[in-house]
Design a protein that fits this description.
The structure is a single chain. The protein is built from ten helices and two strands, in the order H-H-H-H-H-H-H-E-E-H-H-H. By secondary structure, it is mainly alpha-helical. The longest helix is centred in the middle third of the chain and has 26 residues. A two-stranded antiparallel sheet has the order 1-2. The protein has one domain. Helices cover 68% and strands 3% of the residues.
Length: 241
């Protein structure tokens, strides 16, 4: 499988390209830079199920610190005071750093369902809910950056399942264990993963900001980016009529 340096380098390069493309289409520069960073870091998310110590611990520590910052807009929307924001942010940090991290260690196995396409969609929806802001286009742009980084990790793991020895192509046993839609290790991992995915879809669809702003024109996103996204939606509607 690919190593840490290969994963982070690939996801960072993808992130730079993704952020630059967004900026060229009219996304705000700060949103484009944030999307670049999210894509870069997300290239290591699938390895949260790894048994290795330091990388996993550092990723959970980083995620626990960043998640409350990404939720500031939601805190403001809930009319929280500054003191309450600090308190809630601290609680979120402790919950992610210790409760979620321990849960991951106990209930996941390396190359299990956390290494899968459904898990990448779970990460996308979590990012959509965490990266809260009143502009649906900016949320979607940042959320897809997480999905892109996550999937880049899965693709690299599959590529590194092939190796050439003595002029012959050899396929490792790890082939098919990363870029997959279901696990062969039992029914429960699949039910659990797809169950979480459906729950997150329901929460995302029921998000008031999504319902209120999906069909409304945005005044925060420059015209070029907004028009580009509107064209994609119109094309989707045309294809599925």
């Amino acid at each position: 499988m690919a190593g840490f340096r290969t994963h982070i380098t690939t996801s960072t390069i993808l992130g730079v390209g993704y952020g630059a493309t967004g900026y060229s289409l009219g996304m705000p520069w700060e949103t484009s830079l944030l999307a670049t960073g999210l894509c870069s870091v997300s290239g290591m998310l699938p390895d949260l199920d790894s048994d290795s110590g330091v990388p996993v611990r550092e990723m959970f520590s980083f995620s626990a610190a960043v998640i409350p910052l990404l939720m500031i807009d939601r805190f403001e929307h809930l009319h929280m005071s500054q003191e309450l924001m600090v308190l809630v942010g601290g609680l979120i940090y402790l919950f992610v750093r210790f409760i979620v991290a321990r849960w991951f260690k106990q209930y996941t196995v390396h190359r299990g369902m956390w290494h899968s396409i459904p898990a990448a969609l779970v990460a996308l929806l979590l990012a959509f809910l965490i990266c809260s802001c009143e502009d649906i286009y900016l949320r979607a742009f940042k959320s897809f950056a997480v999905f892109l980084g996550f999937v880049s990790h899965l693709v690299l793991d599959e590529i590194y399942s092939f190796e050439i020895r003595q002029g012959k192509l050899r396929i490792k046993n790890s082939f098919g264990t990363a870029l997959k839609f279901w696990s062969k290790k039992g029914l429960w991992p699949n039910v659990s993963t797809y169950g979480k995915l459906l729950i997150l879809v329901g929460i995302a669809v029921g998000d008031p900001w999504l319902m209120n702003h999906w069909e409304e024109p945005s005044h925060d996103v420059p015209h070029t980016a907004q028009q580009w996204l509107n064209d994609l939606l119109e094309e989707r509607d045309r294809l599925f009529r």
